[in-house]
Amino acid sequence: MSQCVHSQESCKICGFHDLCSERAQLGQTAALHCRVSTADQTCARQERDLRAFAKKAGYKIVGVWKETASGAQRIKADRFAPKVLKLVSEGQSYREISHRLGLSKNTVLEIVKRDRAA
């Protein structure tokens, strides 16, 4: 990790010793990515904080992308549900299943919870 030009543990100018505004070069750009996990959440606070950081660091914002992650995860979970439930019934641990199928343990747990609630 590079050091802030101020050589402080936490830069008093930017708060981040590796992204100090005094090191920003003209013409640097930033694409902001805001992500929430449910449809009832909003990206407003994340976007506000990212915009403030980019402004302080001297970056020109070239785009803002907003994403609700749970929709894509739900589709993936639905697709893998039969395999996950079969492996659970065979006695495999959630960790083994997540590793074998390339899923997070939380996704495996969510599939099992939805199945048990049905």
Report on this model:
Helix 2 packs across helix 4 (105-117) and helix 3 (94-101) packs across helix 4. Helix 1 links the parallel strand 1 and strand 2 (60-68). The chain is an alpha+beta fold and 118 residues long. It has helices at 44-57, 69-89, 94-101, 105-117, and strands at residues 29-36, 60-68. 9% of the residues are buried. Strands 1-2 form a two-stranded parallel sheet.
Through-space gap between termini: 49 Å
Shape designation:
elongated
User: Count of helices?
Assistant: 4
Low-confidence stretches: 1-10, 17-21
Describe the oligomeric state of these chains in a short phrase.
single chain
Percent helix range: 40-55%
Question: What structural class do helix, strand and pairing data support?
Answer: alpha+beta
- The value of Rg in angstroms is 21 Å
β-strand number: 2
Average pLDDT number: 76
Largest pleated sheet: 2 strands, parallel
Q: How are the strands of the largest sheet arranged? A: 1-2
Element order: H for helix, E for strand = EHEHHH
What share of the residues does DSSP label as strand, in percent?
A: 5-15%
